[in-house]
Design a protein that fits this description.
Radius of gyration: 20 Å
Number of domains: 2
Helix content: 55-70%
Low-confidence stretches: none
Mean pLDDT: 84
Shape: elongated
Strand order of the largest sheet: 1-2-3
Strand content: 5-15%
Length: about 130
Amino acid sequence: MSEAAAELPISEAREQLTDVVNRAVYAGEATYITRRGRRLAVVTSAAQLEADRARSRQQAVLDTCRRLWAEVSSTGDGAARDYVRSVLDRIIEDAEDLADQTVVRAVDEDTEQGSEPIPWDQVKADLGL
């Protein structure tokens, strides 16, 4: 998402629910639901939620691997370090693969539901390329 997420009071969101959901699913736009200016919830696509969860799980695995490596690299002998490093590399690769597969499944589900892909020129513009 290149723009800041929209915010709607709960009363307006109730009246515009169809539009809010369609923007989440088809345009990838999140909408925060507010009460008295305080954010209560966010409407986002299921695909975006799954992708965010996958990235979060992947980050947790990476953080754990970094902590383990820091401990082993400072105390283990060379052979143990090499072995642990190879195991950590496989774990990280598996976590990345799982996160990628989750995102692909989510995109496939969006496509099946009629979501249009974002044009490449728009992606480049959003990324400042």
